[in-house]
Amino acid sequence: MKIKSTKAQEEAPNAVDKFVGLTQTSYRSFQDYVKFREDDPLWMLIYKIGLQFFGFLLMLLLSPFLILGLTIAIAAVL
What we know:
This protein is mainly α. It has a domain at about 40-78. It contains three helices and no strands. It has helices spanning about 5-10, 15-35, 40-75. The longest helix has about 35 residues, at about 40-75. The protein is elongated and about 55 Å long. It starts with 5 loop residues before the first helix and ends with a helix.
């Protein structure tokens, strides 16, 4: 059985780091897409407000599942 050094483990990205990075880039691109700009017509502003509202509802709906998942993960570790 080989034991890897901690230095090699710190340099190699794990699955959580990859997921967090992907989530951050996705969220930033969504926020950039729904950002209000001066040259947007009225219909585009209404569309972007609708998308922001949909994103808020999606996050609100997913939050109980995320909290439950974190609780189960912490309980499994303990």
